Amino acid sequence: MRSRKKTTLLVLAAVAVGGGVYFLAIAPKADSPESPAAEKTSTVEAHLLPDDKVHAEYAGSETCQECHRAEFENWQHSNHGLAERNYSKDMDEKTFSPRQTLTSGKVTSKAFLDADGVAKILTLGYNNETRAYPIVRIIGNDPLRQFLIPAPGGRLQACDISYDPKKNELFNVYGTEERLPGDWGHWTGQGMNWNAMCAACHNTRLRKNYQPTTNSYNTKMAEMTVSCEACHGPMKKHVEWQKNPPPGLTKTDKDPTIFRQTRDQMIETCAACHARRGEVTGDLIPGESFYDHFNLVVTDETDIFHPDGQVRDENYEYTSFVSSRMHHVGIRCVDCHEPHTGKRILEGNALCMRCHAGGTEPPATVIDPLSHGHHAPGSAGNDCTSCHMPVTTYMQRHPRHDHGFTIPDPLLTVEFGTPNACNRCHTDKDPQWALDAANEWYGEKLDRPTRTRAQLIARARQGDPAARDGLIALLKTEPIPAWRASFCHLLELWSLEPETITALIRQLKDESPLVREAAVRSLIQPVRQQYQRAISAITPLLDDPSRSVRVSAAWALVATLELSSKAGKELVHLLDLGSDQPTGRMQLSQFAYLRGQPEVAIKQLKKAISWDPLSPPFHHDLGILLSTIGDIPGAIDAMKEASRLDPENPEYHYKLALAYNESGNVPLTIASLRKTVELDPSNARAWYNLGLALNGQKQTREAIEALTRAEQADPYDAGIPYALATIYAAQDQRQPAIDAVTRALQIRQDFPEALQLLHNLSRR
Questions:
Q1: Secondary structure percentages of the chain, helix, strand, coil, to 5
Q2: What's the pLDDT tens digit per position in 591-610?
Q3: Any long-range contacts for 334-338 (C-beta under 8 Å, 24+ apart)?
Q4: Cα(263)–Cα(335) distance, rounded to whole angstroms?
Q5: pLDDT tens readout for residues 30-42
Q6: Alpha-carbon gap, residue 368 to 375, rounded angstroms
Q7: Alpha helix ranges (H) inside 578-649
Q8: Distance from the Cα of residue 347 to its chain's centroid
Q9: Measured distance CA(408)–CA(390) in Å, rounded
Q10: pTM summary value
C-alpha cells in the first residue's frame, strides 16, 4: 500500500485557537528538561529590558487628569477605563448580595458574600469538587463582567459564570455547552487562564512572564486596566517635563518628549487588542508596527470568517475593518469613535451620512438611505448598520457589529450557505425570497467583484482546482492587502504546483508585511519538500523589515536555521512565549521533530495532551510521531482516540488506516479506508489504497470499483490508472488493461513501469 512520506504528515500550518493564531514552537533551552538537549541558545533577547526598568517609564493615569481633565473623565468610566479592576463594594455588591444562583447543565453555581464580606463563587472546580472560590478581580464592564479567581502558580482564572449588569443576573459564557474540569476550555483550564488569554488586552504594558520549568507565572503590568498609557505609551518623561520645563520654556510650549502617533499608528495600537491575532513578542509598545508584534488572522481556508469576509468565529473588529473599502480609502477608528469614551461620535445613519451625503475627499458614494435601503424611515431595515454591519453575539451577551461593511448578497447564501443581512432579520423567509427581492431592487449592481471574490474563496475552501487560477489572477488586481493575504493562504492547497509557487514568490515582494508573511507560510510545504526555488526566495526574508515576516521565514527554514542569527533569536523568543498553551507545546513538538529530535517531539506533544486531552489534532500528531519511531501500537491507539473525539474527520480515519496497514491488520485497514471515503468521497488517495487493499484480499471487482473512483477523484495521478491496468492484466482483460495504462502514459510519458506493461500487453 502506498502512503505519503511521513515527514509531510505533521501539522505544520498555522493553528487558530482562542484569541489568536500560533504557528511556531517553544525555543529549546539546554538546561531545561522541557527542551531539546542538543540545542543551545538563550531565550532572552538583549532588547527586552527587565519589567521594573520598562514599567518605571510609566507615570500612571492619575497624573494625566490635572491637564487633561475632560479626557480623563471620559476615559475613567468607559469600558477601557473599567477593563480590569479590583472587586469594588460600590460597583459589585449587588452582583453578590442578595445571593444569586445559576444552574447550567448539571452544575448549580452561586454568587454570594461570605460572613466576612468576601465575594465568592460556589461552583464546580478543581478535582471535580464544588466549593466556594474567592473573587479577586473583575474584567469587563458592559455588556458583561467576568470574575477572576486565584489559582496555583501565579495564575488567575476567568470563571465561566459571569454577570450581566443590565439584567442583573448571572449567566454562563458557554451557554448550554457543558465544560467540565479537565477540559481546556473549562474555567480551571488553560483556555480560561487570565495570564495568557485575557491580561494583555485588559491591562497596560503587560509581561506574561511564564516560567516553563516550574509551569508558573510572574505576570507584571505597568498599570491595571487599559489606561491612558496603554494607548499613548509611557508618559513619565512628559509628566516630568510638564512639571519642570527646561529653562526658558513653559509647559505650553511643544513638549519634545511626546511621541505623536500618525493615524495609521493609532489604528494599529487599537488593533493590538481589537484583533484576533497571535503574539510575536508579548511586549507591544504603542506606535510600533502591529506586524512587528503580531500575526493577524485573516479570511483563509478555515471557517473563522465566511467566504465574503463576514465574521463567524470570535474575531473582534480589526481584520474585518482592514479588509474593507472604508479602511482602504483612509477611514480610521477615530473617524467614527470618540477615542476616550469608545462610543460612536454620532448615532444612527447620521454617522454614515457624514461621508455618504457627498462633499467629502476622497469622494464617497452619495446615498439616500430611504431609496437605497427600500425600508420605511425609522425601521431597522432603514439603518445602514443593519445591512452593512450585521450583529453577531459572542459570549452569550456581547453583540458586536461586523466592521467589514460587507454588501448583503443572498446569492452567496443560496450557493454556499453564507449568511446575509436580509435573512438575519427576515427569519421567516428563505434565501431565495431574499435573492429575488435583492435582484428586483439592485439588479446587475450585485454582480460585482466582491461577489466573484467570495465565490472563489468558497470554491477554494471546497478544494475546487478551478479556483486556483482565479485566486492567482486576483493577486494581480486586488487593491486591499488583507485580501491578497487571504488569497496567499488559500493557495497553500496548490503550493507544490509550479504556477502557484511562481505566484507566491511574487508576493514575497508585496509592500504589505501581511501579504509577505502569508506568502511565506504558504510556501512552507515546497520548502519542506526541498524545492530550491522556494528556499532561495524565502531566505532573504530572514532580514525582512517586518518582524512577523522574519519569524515566519525562520520557521519555514527552521530545519537548518542558525538560531544565533537575528531571525533565529526572534523565533526563539516567540517559541518561549507560546509554551504555556497546548498549541505552543504542539509547535514545540514540530520544532523538535524538524530539528531531528523525535523523542523530544513526542514528549512535548504528550504535554499538550495532558493540558488538553479533548483536542483531536494533538492525538493525530502524536500518532504520526509514534509511527516515525516504529511504535505502531501506540500510533494506532493515538489515531483511534483522534477518531473517537472527531468521528466525522476523514483524515483521522485515513491515518488510522495507514497505521493498521503498518501493523499488518488488513481487515481493519479496509474498514478504516471505507469510513474515510464514506466521509470524503473526493479523497483519491484513500480510494487508491482501498483498491490495493481489496485486490490483495482477492476482491477484484471491488478493487476495480475503488480504483475507478480514485481516478475520478484525481485524474492527474498516473499511478492510479497504472494500478488499474495491472489488475486488468492479471485478470487477462487485455483491452481494459491497455486502455488504463495508456491513460497513465498520457499523464506521465516517462513512466517506465507503465511503458513496460504496455509493451508486454502489445506482445500478447
A1: 50, 10, 40
A2: 999 999 999 999 999 999 99
A3: 334/263, 334/266, 338/74
A4: 10
A5: 333 344 323 333 3
A6: 12
A7: 582-594, 598-611, 616-628, 632-645
A8: 32
A9: 9
A10: 0.89
